[in-house]
User: Fold this.
Amino acid sequence: MKIVTLVKHVPDAAADRTFDADYITDRAGVEGLLSELDEYAVEEALKVADAGAGVEVVALTMGPGGADAAVRKALQMGADSGVHVVDEALHGSDAPATAQVLAAAIAKIGDVDLVLTGMASTDGGMGVIPAMLAEHLGLAHVGYVGELTVSGGTVTCRRDGDAASETIEAALPAVVAVTDQINEPRYPSFKGIMAAKKKPVRAWTLADLGVDAARVGLDAAFSVVRAVTRRPERSQGQIVTDSGDGGTKLAEFLAARKFI
Ligand SMILES: Cc1cc2nc3c(=O)[nH]c(=O)nc-3n(C[C@H](O)[C@H](O)[C@H](O)COP(=O)(O)OP(=O)(O)OC[C@H]3O[C@@H](n4cnc5c(N)ncnc54)[C@H](O)[C@@H]3O)c2cc1C
Assistant:
């Protein structure tokens, strides 16, 4: 069985987010890391691999130079190999282009039984890539999955809603987006970190994937960012010293703002 897990390299949320002249997130000049929500997808792939025999886990990313750091983190956690789609022409790609390129990479990896993704990235946060990917690949898509099991040619998923939990079955191959409730991602062990250094990461260009560069990147984007305005710094807020009347002051504060 072969599982592909998507890993996006995103700017560190703690770092100051900057934009280039085209209002595209500056990914080159800032510290980046594996999108936290993707760690749950990597972990779930490794759990399936731990539970079965002959399961191969491939970590896949699309991004500029440096984005392979996201793949490296997945290899340190235990994935077997990685793929980094890197090409100048990808700069400024929107979600439709990203899905098209990732679908072409999955087709090139070949014989993929299950694609596991996070429920959203921690920078764009659109939560659309898994469904778009499934559309390109002609596969079933199950989103917001809080528990999954793979047996035979079927993946069985549980999705918890506010009122009810659904159990959804899909024939493999399929695309499944998991939530941050599905597991507790493992920390890379020292052994895992050392082993990752020897694991292969294939770097593919658009030409390697047979994707026309004119269909991706900023010029081909369906949506364009026209302006970026900084959110006002959060004000410190009112500090209340509780000298026995903290509760009253809080109630007055809430009442004055018609919260109560
Ligand atoms: C702040 C911001 C706003 C944006 N707004 C838009 C917009 O309105 N319209 C638009 O079309 N594009 C937009 N983009 C671009 C869009 O983010 C990228 O195309 C992105 O790669 C896909 O969207 P996402 O990050 O929201 O992914 P999501 O749909 O949230 O991600 C779902 C899953 O797909 C995986 N995934 C996403 N991108 C990659 C990748 N490059 N490599 C590997 N796995 C990946 C995620 O890791 C996650 O597991 C925006 C980007 C940013 C940073």
Remarks:
- Residues 2-220 form a domain with the Rossmann fold fold (CATH 3.40.50.620).
- Residues 6-8, 25, 35, 38, 41, 61-63, 93-95, 98, 117-118, 120-121, 123-130, 223 surround flavin-adenine dinucleotide (CB under 6 Å).
